[in-house]
Amino acid sequence: MLPDKVVRGKAPWVERQHPDCAVLLFRAGSKPEIDYGRMSEALRLFDGLEWVGKANGLSKDHVVWDVIYRTVEQVQRHNPASGDQFIVNPWRMSPALSEGLYKELTVQEVVRRRRSAVDMDGVHVMGRDTFYQMLLHCLPSGEVGPGERQGPQSALPFRVLPWDAEVHAALFVHRVSGLPKGLYFLVRNEEHLDALRRVMRGDFEWMRPEGCPDGLPLYRLMKGDCQRLAMQISCFQEIASHGCFSLGMIARFEAVLQEKGEWMYPRLFWETGVLGQVLYLEAHAVGISATGIGCYFDDAVHEVLGLKDLEFQSLYHFTVGAPVLDKRIMSLPAYPGPGIDA
């Protein structure tokens, strides 16, 4: 029974696991077929399984935020909608400017080195081509042909999400050589471009930046030093202004919930999470770092962009730059073991 107010005290049940998705594996070359009825029945049986082992407790005392658990109940998706089909989009490569922009690291090395920066140096300058390359790998549809637009999630890792891209990026560019400081916008689903231009500030430029690859739907909204602004809207955290660039992830919101259901609410955050992980790996692959920023003022972000309703909503913040290591903090290998330490 959920409380109807915030409760403090021992409540170990709040640390229970919440499985959000099932991953289905198919033999390469086979045609994927899904029996949603059988799958739903199997998932319902999970609660009765006997789990091996016991998770360590995270805290002796807890704060039960009732609104969080009530929201979880409201946004659950219990069964597939009638007519749901399992569709596998054709796989597409992500576009690449030059492999020479990356350090000579294997995928395993990049993944094992991935860390969240706790501070940025406020000095490092990123090359323009490196910036463009990172954003190219943030595109959901990969390399598109003439007349095609970004939107369907066909490139890795975005293709794990079975819906067209709903999340865009408002970028605060601080230190990118050959690119003026200012506010930029990456349109990850070009079907939304007209709506974005309609609801955002009328004095934005919507200009293609110099040297921008043809397949990258990136626009400059305004020039200017946005370091203080980026810090302020990210709860006054300096890490948002001390990197090469920071960003707010902007999702098409109200229409998505109306068209598909409230269960899409957490899934929009899944999409921001996948986008954030791509940025983490891209940053480490070029020799710098990144971190997600969970504290931000969404109303202030909306004011900056000119958003006045819930058609689009700020959902998460992120920053990329050269990290400053805190020597007071011990760092251990994420995956310890003979011959595999990062």
Key structural traits:
two-stranded antiparallel ribbon; Nitroreductase domain-containing protein; alpha+beta; oxidoreductase activity; NADH Oxidase; six-stranded antiparallel beta sheet; 2 domains; 8 strands; 9 helices; 342 residues; 25% helix
Characterization of this structure:
The chain is of the alpha+beta class. It has 2 domains: 68 residues, no CATH class; 223 residues, 3-Layer(aba) Sandwich (NADH Oxidase), CATH 3.40.109. The protein has 9 helices and 8 strands. A 6-stranded antiparallel β-sheet has the order 5-4-3-6-8-7, with helices on both faces. A two-stranded antiparallel sheet has the order 1-2. A hairpin with an 8-residue loop joins strand 3 and strand 4. The radius of gyration is 21 Å and the shape is globular. The model has no long low-confidence stretch (mean pLDDT 89).
